Structure formats: structure tokens, C-alpha cells
UniProtKB/TrEMBL annotation:
The keyword tRNA-binding does not apply. The keyword Protein biosynthesis does not apply. This is Vitamin B12 transport ATP-binding protein BacA. It comes from Sporomusa termitida. GO terms for molecular function: ABC-type transporter activity; ATP binding; ATP hydrolysis activity. It is a multi-pass membrane protein.
Length: 572
């Protein structure tokens, strides 16, 4: 099967092997062993039921009442075992699946969040669409398909071996007269089943091959469509102000158009596959009876034998046709593996790029020393060239310059986020740093969680939080500390910026970097907050980015950037 090529199998194996060699390997392997045993038991019960058919129908044909009732008793026993095995087989398989998924999800989340991978992925060219979907959806599908398909394959194989033996015994010998010669075929029903299944598999492959690509695309289009809807929800107010509904609707319709068109192609393919698979399945019901009938009419076998042959043929044919019946699932599984492999290789590619913090080192001085620092854009354009700067602890610096001149990018570089920088930045050992972006991030959760974000390694009493809220003029919100809301939609931009100042007063960092952190506030509030920072965090070094002239008076030095690489440092 070209779909299951060597490269795909290698990629799948490298996805699979991690869990089975992890710290959870022994419980997982134990559980798998139980599931495999149940699968084998299941096939064994099927073999017993197949033999039972012979006994029961022969008893019926011979009007042997006693034997019929005894066979019915045997059937009850077999059915009870069958039910127990079927229930636990599925239950334990699902248990293994969710444990495997949990392990993979934790691992992928960790990889995505370590070394700011989530940020660096979107900075680089190595574009991975919807990483969130890789983690939430594809890992689920991967564990589900991998277990279902591999256990299905095992079951098909064991069924095949068991029933080929039975079918071979039951087939007897077929003698085909060829003129004056005779062709003697042993186990002819086995050969018929093999030919029937090989033709079926080949045809299913021909018809179903494009499904792998189509399923891959479908997942991506669905995710893009969903993501655009989420963006509307998140930016509802801006869109409503702009009156952008018509533009949004056009874009939704265009995205959904891709979902629709791709699904339409999937439908067509599935229709062809269903035409074929159901026709193939129907023929399989009658085909063995017809082929085995000559021996029945020749009175070589009884009715029970005929039915047993038909059932055995069914089992052999069904397991040989495993690829036909699971073609759609295999195609989807391949799409999932391709997406996960793409995601992993993007992460690997990004991890080989220089880290944003590769220019940063820790030094003994209580100062931040920038030596010969140059910053580029991802396309190689230089926006800052050869910056030399020393900020002593306790000093204050304002970074100014026209919009787009690279002020925020300088802050990103100082915080170790921006990978396109050369030179050296020495930061003081043991000092704490806090960076406030222009748009304060408000996580989902209670107001208390939001105010303490990203968390402290000491307990913070409510009194301390409320005191910080009061000086930032947010005491009106103190009754909402335990309320869970989407705060970024409720609070005004100015309130959100004041929340960032509450964080400053609670975290009390040694170094505070603020990127236009007061841009949404009136000048009086800005003055009050800067005054409070100078008064209450007297030892804190302040580095601000901003346009307003009012900021000049809170800083001792001013660094001006022009966005073409030049810079100028002024002591005020
Ligand atoms: N992830 C990115 N990929 C490509 N270019 C980027 C990226 N981030 C920023 N830039 C570009 O870098 C330049 C500097 O951006 P930056 O945000 O540092 O400017 P700024 O001086 O802070 O502007 P403003 O005052 O408007 O906030 C801009 O031209 C911007 O388009």
C-alpha cells in the first residue's frame, strides 16, 4: 500500500515509541498485554462459535432435538464469554488510549511552552497552522487510531490464521475437469477467499487513495474557520465599532467555502468507496455459499458444514479485507501523523535557531550593560546598530522614537524574546525583572489570579492586594476578587493598564520595563502612578517606552531611536 510507505511508518514509529519507553511504560505495556490477550480470546470464541454452527445446523437437519437443546446451552455459555470479553476489550482499550493521550498532551504542552516555543514558532518562517489543534485534536485522533488500527490488524491476522486452517480442512478437494485432464485443488475455498480479498483491497486502494490528502486539508480548513470565529469573539468590540460585519462575514464565508469544497470532494470519494465497500460486503454474503454449494449437492457436506464453510469464508475474507474496511480510517490516521510530524519538525527547526536570550549573560555588576548591540527584523533589515548603554541599578531610562522605530523590539531583545540580535547584554545576577507590555494580558480566571499573574512564590494576603488596588484606583473592583470573568472584555483599557500596575506593586521587581504601559491613561493618573512607583519602589530601575513628553520628567536618561539603526543617548 503506497499510502503506508516507509517514511510514514518511520514517522509513526517515532511518534509511538516515546510513550512505550517512557516512565509509564510498564503499566502501559501491562495494560496492552491484557488487551491483546482479550483480543486473542475473542478470536478463539469466534472459532468455537464457528464450530458450533456445524453442530447446531446438523442437529437441526437431523431433527435431533436433544442435540439442538444441548447446542443451545453451549451457545449461551459462548455468548456470555463473548459479551464479557467484548466489554472489557473496549473498556481497557479506551483506558490505555486516554492514558497515552494524557502523556502525549503533557509532553507536547511542555515542548510548546519551553523556551518560549509558542512565541518563536510564530516569529519564524516555519509556519505551523493551528498548534492548538495539533495538541487538542490530533493527539486524541493519533492515540485513538493507532490503538484501534493496530489492534484491529492483530485481530484480523489471528482471525485469518485460525480460520484459514478451518477453511482449509472444510474445503476438501475440488476436482476441475480440463478436457482429458483433471485439476485437483486442495483447500480451494481458501484460494477463492484470497483472490476475492486481493482484488477488493487493490480496488479500495485505487478508489480511496486521495482521501489521505483530503482529510489532511479538511482538518486544516475546519481549524482555520474555527479560529477566525474565535477572533471575532475576541475582537467583538473593535469590529462592532468599525462596522466590520460585512467584511467579517465575507471572510467567514470564504473560509467556510474551503471547508465546504473540500468536504464535497471527500463526500464524492467516500461515496465511491461506499458503493464499492457495500457491494463488496453484500457479494461476500452469498459468494461462499455459491462456491461451496457443488460439494453440498454432491452430498459431500451437510447443511451444518455448508454454513460453517460460509462463516469461515466470511471470517477469512473479512480479515483479508481489513485494509478495505479500514481504508477511510487509515487515510485519516495518515493525515494525523503527517500533521503531528510537521508540527514536531517545525519545533525542531525553531529549536536550532538562536535563542532570544543567547546575547544575554549574567554579570556581577548591579547594572544592565548593553555592548555593541545590533537588532534586525526577521527579513534581515537592521533597525538598531551598535548600541552601547549602561543602566545602573536605581536609574531610569526612557526609550523614545517614532512609531515603528524599534522601541518595543529593543525591549523584546532585553527580555530575551527577540532572536535576531547580536552583541552582548549583561544583566545583574539575582535581580528580579518585570516587563509590562502595552496591552496587559489578562488570563481567564478570577480577578485575584489576574492581579497576581503570572504568580508569586510567596502567599499574598487579600489586604495586600486590596491596598495595591486602592493606590491604582481600582478599589471599586475589590468585591470581585473571587469572580471568574473574561476580564479583558469587561475592563477598560485604562483599567487593564492599572491592573498591570497592581502587579508591579505586588511583585516589587528590581527592574521594571514598561512598554507604553500608561498610553491609555489620562496624564493625571499617569503622573500619580509614576509618582507611586518612584515613591514606593525607590530602588527599582525603570525603563519605559513611550511617545508622550510628559514621561520625560520621570526619567534621568533618554534613548532616542530612528528605526534606521541610529540611536542617541541624552542625560536629562
Ligand atoms: N514579529 C515580527 N515580524 C516582522 N516584523 C516585526 C515583528 N515585530 C515587529 N516587527 C517590525 O519591527 C518594526 C519595529 O517594531 P516595534 O514594535 O519595535 O516598533 P515601536 O517603535 O515599538 O512602534 P510603536 O511606537 O508603534 O509601538 C516595525 O516595523 C514592525 O513592523
Amino acid at each position: 500500500m503506497a499510502v503506508l510507505d516507509r517514511k510514514f511508518l518511520q514517522a509513526t514509529w517515532s511518534l509511538i515509541r516515546e510513550y512505550w519507553h517512557s516512565e509509564e511504560k510498564w503499566p502501559a505495556r501491562g495494560l496492552l498485554a491484557v488487551i491483546v490477550t482479550l483480543n486473542l480470546t475473542y478470536v478463539y470464541i469466534l472459532v468455537l462459535i464457528n464450530k458450533w454452527f456445524n453442530r447446531f445446523y446438523n442437529a437441526l437437519q437431523n431433527f435431533d432435538k436433544e442435540e439442538v437443546f444441548s447446542a443451545l446451552g453451549e451457545f449461551c455459555l459462548l455468548a456470555a464469554c463473548y459479551i464479557i470479553v467484548a466489554v472489557y476489550q473496549l473498556y481497557l482499550q479506551q483506558m490505555l488510549e486516554i492514558k497515552w493521550r494524557r502523556w502525549m498532551t503533557h509532553k507536547y504542552l511542555n515542548n510548546w511552552l519551553t523556551d518560549r516555543m509558542f512565541y518563536r514558532l510564530q516569529l519564524t518562517d516555519s509556519y505551523t497552522d493551528n498548534p492548538d489543534q495539533r495538541i487538542s485534536e490530533d493527539l486524541r485522533l493519533f492515540t485513538n487510531y493507532t490503538l484501534a488500527l493496530s489492534l484491529g490488524l492483530l485481530k484480523a491476522f489471528v482471525t485469518l490464521v485460525s480460520f484459514i486452517a478451518i477453511l482449509w480442512q472444510l474445503s476438501g478437494i475440488l476436482v476441475i475437469p480440463l478436457g482429458s485432464q483433471q485439476l485437483v485443488v486442495s483447500g480451494y475455498m481458501v484460494w477463492v477467499a484470497i483472490i476475492y480479498s486481493v482484488i477488493g483491497t487493490w480496488l479500495a486502494h485505487k478508489i480511496g487513495k486521495p482521501l489521505a490528502r483530503l482529510n489532511f486539508d479538511q482538518q486544516r480548513y475546519e481549524a482555520d474557520f474555527r479560529f477566525s470565529l474565535v477572533r471575532l469573539r475576541e475582537n467583538s468590540e473593535s469590529i462592532a465599532f468599525y462596522g466590520g460585519e460585512a467584511r467579517e462575514e465575507r471572510s467567514f464565508i470564504a473560509r467556510f467555502g474551503k471547508v465546504f469544497n473540500n468536504y464535497w470532494q471527500i463526500m464524492q470519494r467516500r461515496k465511491q468507496l461506499t458503493w464499492f465497500a457495500s457491494g463488496y460486503g453484500q457479494i461476500a454474503i452469498i459468494f461462499p455459499l455459491v462456491v461451496a454449494m457443488p460439494r453440498y449437492f454432491a452430498k459431500e457436506i451437510q447443511l451444518g458444514g455448508l454454513l460453517q464453510i460460509a462463516k469461515a469464508f466470511d471470517s477469512v475474507q473479512e480479515s483479508l479485507s481489513y485494509f478495505v474496511s479500514s481504508y477511510a480510517s487509515i487515510a485519516e490516521w495518515k493525515a494525523v501523523v503527517d500533521r503531528l510530524t510537521g508540527f514536531i519538525s517545525s519545533m525542531q527547526q525553531v529549536s536550532t535557531l538562536p535563542q532570544g536570550n543567547s546575547v544575554i549573560e549574567v554579570g556581577p555588576e548591579a547594572a544592565l550593560v548593553v555592548s555593541d548591540l545590533s537588532i534586525d527584523l526577521p527579513d534581515g533589515q537592521r533597525i538598531l546598530s551598535g548600541l552601547n548603554l549602561t543602566i545602573q541599578a536605581g536609574e531610569s531610562l526612557l526609550v523614545a522614537g517614532p512609531s515603528g522605530s524599534g522601541k518595543s523590539t529593543l525591549l523584546r531583545t532585553l527580555s530575551g524574546l527577540w532572536p535576531y540580535a547580536q552583541g552582548r547584554i549583561t544583566i545583574p545576577a539575582g535581580h528580579t525583572f518585570l516587563f509590562l507590555p502595552q496591552r496587559s494580558y489578562l488570563p481567564l480566571g478570577t480577578l485575584r489570579d489576574t492581579l497576581l499573574y503570572p504568580g508569586l512564590n510567596r502567599p499574598v494576603a487579600d489586604e495586600e492586594i486590596i491596598a495595591a488596588m486602592s493606590i491604582c484606583k481600582l478599589e471599586g473592583l475589590k468585591s470581585y476578587l473571587d469572580k471568574t470573568e473574561d476580564w479583558s472584555h469587561i475592563l477598560s483599557l485604562g483599567e487593564q493598564q492599572r491592573i498591570a500596575f497592581v502587579r508591579v506593586f505586588i511583585h516589587q521587581p528590581d527592574w521594571l520595563f514598561m512598554d507604553e504601559a500608561t498610553s491609555a491613561l489620562d496624564e493625571a493618573t499617569e503622573r500619580q502612578l509614576y509618582g507611586l512607583v518612584q515613591e514606593r519602589l525607590a530602588g527599582t530601575t525603570l525603563v519605559s517606552v513611550g511617545h508622550r513628553n510628559t514621561l520625560n520628567s520621570y526619567h534621568k536618561k533618554k534613548l532616542s531611536l530612528d528605526g534606521r539603526g541610529h540611536w542617541n543617548l541624552l542625560v536629562m
